[in-house]
Amino acid sequence: MRVAIAGAGLAGLSCAKYLTDAGHTPIVLESRDVLGGLVAAWKDSDGDWYETGLHAFFGAYPNMLQLLKELGIEDRLQWKDHTLIFNQPDKPGTLSRFDVPDIPSPFNVIASILRNKDMLTWEQKIRFAIGLLPAVVRGQKYVEDMDKYSFLEWLKRQGVDERVTSDVFIAACKALTFINPDEVSATILLTALNRFLQERYGSKIAFLDGSPTERLCSPIVDYITERGGEVRLNAPLKEILLNADGTVKGYLIRGLNGAEDEVFMADSYVSAISVDPLKVILPKPWKLMEFFQKLEGLEGVPVINLHLWFDRKLTEIDHLLFSRSPLLSVYADMSNTCREYANPNRSMLELVLAPAKDWIAKSDEEIVAATIAELEKLFPNHFGGDNPATLLKSHVVKTPRSVYKATPGSQQYRPAQVTPIANFYLAGSYTMQRYLGSMEGAVLSGKLTAQAISEALPVANSSNLQTLTRPPATNAATA
Ligand SMILES: Cc1cc2nc3c(=O)[nH]c(=O)nc-3n(C[C@H](O)[C@H](O)[C@H](O)COP(=O)(O)OP(=O)(O)OC[C@H]3O[C@@H](n4cnc5c(N)ncnc54)[C@H](O)[C@@H]3O)c2cc1C
User: Fold this and answer.
1) Do 195 and 143 belong together in one domain?
2) Is residue 419 domain-shared with residue 271, that is, in the same domain?
3) Is 32 in the pocket of ligand 1 (CB under 6 A)?
4) What's the pLDDT tens digit per position in 139-156?
5) Ligand 1 atom at minimum distance from 29 CA
6) What tens digit of pLDDT does each residue of 434-450 get?
7) Which domain-ending residue is among 399, 431, 448?
8) How many CB atoms are closer than 10 A to CB 468?
């Protein structure tokens, strides 16, 4: 069966990969001239890569890890020491580590928290552990119910004092969702904490060994095309054409550079485009349906990714760092962490600026200047003194609408992959799956969509999707 998939982000590509395995012929139609959506990357005129986002992979990403294995490229992940590293703003240039020992979970994470002496007092640690108990004992149902609270409200209800928020969780919220604890749904942090507590290597971090476009997306495209599928760039979905019964008749693809629009017909149709553009192109009759009306409750959150090349090495740390800066979220010296970006003499810092709503409209120069000012606190030895590091060049990538904004109450608006339209499906990290707006969530959503299509349109003699790595669903919403 031919399946048309709009969007070549990780969700669309994963959906196509698993449809291929099920014996279908996917045709992916991507509006831009680059693969990957939010993981897209470009090479500049010097041959240096710059990316939409600094991307960290976690041990708690079973579907992503399985996908890499199936593609034979799992060695492209460069695993780092099992630790989480935070800057200490009140002691510029110093770091605080949560080193996770190699013992079974949850004792490994608990030991890392107990052994950290810089960031939390004993009383705070005990209060937080007690506060977390219901999430651990009552599981995902409790975690989903907590979507009515912001993470800050939840902490207060559990009697955890504000310093825990400022010390640890502002950094975690900004890293996971690009917003602060007073805005983010408690479900998000509790879900992540639960995964980290339940899986021995859940919080272990890896970086890809090069650009996601070339090292992750291209092998998926090769896999699909070698088996008869297709991935077309510069093919924007302009309109969803309907039959008289409201099902999809075809995808109208906008002709670029004076070319005529094209009607693309298939047996089944998937939208793997982000939720904001999807809302715009939904056919009018569908907009009256409750299922699609709920999408109005979802909206992409702004974020900015910076790349700064310096004339010297600023650090030897080969890991992700939580800046705990009001302006920045996480950062890494990619000249240490990523094989293809390696440079023994010069640093390339990749930094995420979040929350970005007050910065997204500012000029690149203003954004870079504000970031350099923050670097004085992160690397005091290299900035502000007699011989400050020189910025050689920079790239700023702004994404006004990235992953869905995970505010309290937003879980109820996340749609299932199966829609009320018989031949139309959704994929994307914003759709309902338990890995939130992440690469793992995108890959899992694509897999779930492929599975649903294969169930509706079985193909004789196909290898089916028995390889699904789906955590047991605790309720329909988390399937
Ligand atoms: C700065 C940043 C840092 C991040 N860090 C991490 C991290 O460390 N770890 C992690 O797990 N996740 C991270 N993420 C989140 C992760 O990148 C996303 O959750 C994931 O890539 C989303 O994939 P997707 O396929 O659901 O959506 P998208 O990547 O948004 O893909 C949608 C695709 O649809 C295309 N499209 C849009 N409109 C049309 C149209 N009309 N016709 C055809 N195609 C269309 C788009 O061009 C795009 O290619 C980060 C994201 C950002 C922005």
Assistant:
1) yes
2) yes
3) yes
4) 888 999 999 999 989 988
5) 43
6) 888 999 999 999 999 99
7) 399
8) 14
Q: Is 238 in the pocket of ligand 1 (CB under 6 A)?
A: no
CA nearest 73: which of 34, 17, 15, 141?
A: 17
Is 31 near ligand 1, meaning CB less than 6 Å away? yes
Q: Are residues 239 and 189 in the same domain?
A: no
- How many domains are there within the chain? 3
- Does residue 217 have its Cβ closer than 6 Å to ligand 1? no
- Say if CB 462 and CB 453 are below 8 A apart: no
Strands of the sheet with 262-264, listed across from one edge: 237-242, 248-253, 262-264
Q: Is residue 80 part of a domain?
A: no
CATH (domain of 385): 3.90.660.50
DSSP, collapsed to helix, strand or coil, labels residue 307 as: strand
Task: Look at residue 93 and tell me if it is in a domain.
Answer: no
In angstroms, the CA 357 to CA 302 distance is: 6
288, 323: one domain? no
Measure CA of the first residue to CA of the last residue in the chain; give whole Å. 25
Specify the 3-state DSSP secondary structure of 232.
strand
Tokens of 226: 């070698």
Containing structural domain, residue 386: 303-399
For ligand 1, is residue 190 a contact (CB within 6 Å)?
A: no
Ligand 1 atom at shortest distance from the alpha carbon of 428: 26
Amino acid at 323: S
Residue 473 has pLDDT above 60, yes or no: no
The predicted model scores a pTM of 0.94
